[in-house]
Amino acid sequence: MKFTAGNTNAIRNELYEQLMSYRYEVFVARLGWELKTEIGWEADEFDHRDTQYVIAQDELGRITGCARLLPTSKPYLLEKIFPELMQDQPLPKSNAVWELSRFTSLNPHETQTQTPNQFSSETAIELLRECIQVAWQHGARHMITVSPLAIERLLRRAGFTSQRAAPPKVIGGYPLVPCWLDLQLNLQSRSE
After folding, report:
1. Exposure pattern of 110-142 as b/e (b: 16+ CB <10 Å)?
2. What is the pairing mode between strands 2-6 and 142-148?
């Protein structure tokens, strides 16, 4: 597995186009998310020149996972789309806190008869490790993410340390929970 990280200026145009097509295939076509997007291209207002992407590719160069990283000092998904998930907790606004979103390791090259698993554990774990490294290198000390409860369980099983920012809440029929990741703590546990 190969990882590429960077903003739109750092990654090749061809790879960026593959990324947006991959996200459409995963989030819209396979998972059925109702997003306002063009056919074959999944992007929103949080995809801009300062956005950092982490992309996993297989040995053939096909995308098998991705994540989006944004500093919370600028507009971000949790703040603008899902603020009610934080309930009575303040929304982070800091260069030291980055949001992890559009995280998936669903492999669209698997047959359609296989159960979609956007968090296949080996790829997801490696992808999350890369995200932690990239965010840390850009000055982040914490990450916050909106996740299904299954991701919270995956994090624990994989040895990551996370903490709920607020209790789970059902949105669109899915129980979602905002989670904190202390990057230094998770980097230390990886090196031990």
Report:
1. eeeeeebebbbeebbbbbbbbbbbbbbeeebeb
2. unpaired
Provide the CB-side half-sphere exposure for 95 (13 A, CA).
4
Spatial separation of the C-alpha atoms in residues 92 and 76, rounded to whole Å:
10
DSSP code string of 13-44: HHHHHHHHHHHIIIIIIIT------BTTB---
Q: Quote the CA–CA distance of 124 and 34 in Å, as a whole number.
A: 23
The answer on pLDDT for 119 being more than 70 is no
Q: Domain segments of the chain: what residues?
A: 2-191
Taking the C-alpha atoms of 52, 58, 64 and 65 in order, what is their torsion angle to the nearest 10 degrees? Answer: -30
pTM of the model: 0.89
Q: Are the C-beta atoms of 155 and 119 separated by less than 8 Å?
A: no
CB 55 within 8 A of CB 65: yes
For residue 190, pLDDT beyond 70 = no
Residue 174: count other Cβ atoms within 10 Å of its Cβ: 11
Summarised one tens digit per residue, pLDDT across range 154-169 is: 788 888 889 999 999 9
Q: Is domain 2-191 given the CATH code 3.40.630.30 in the classification?
A: yes
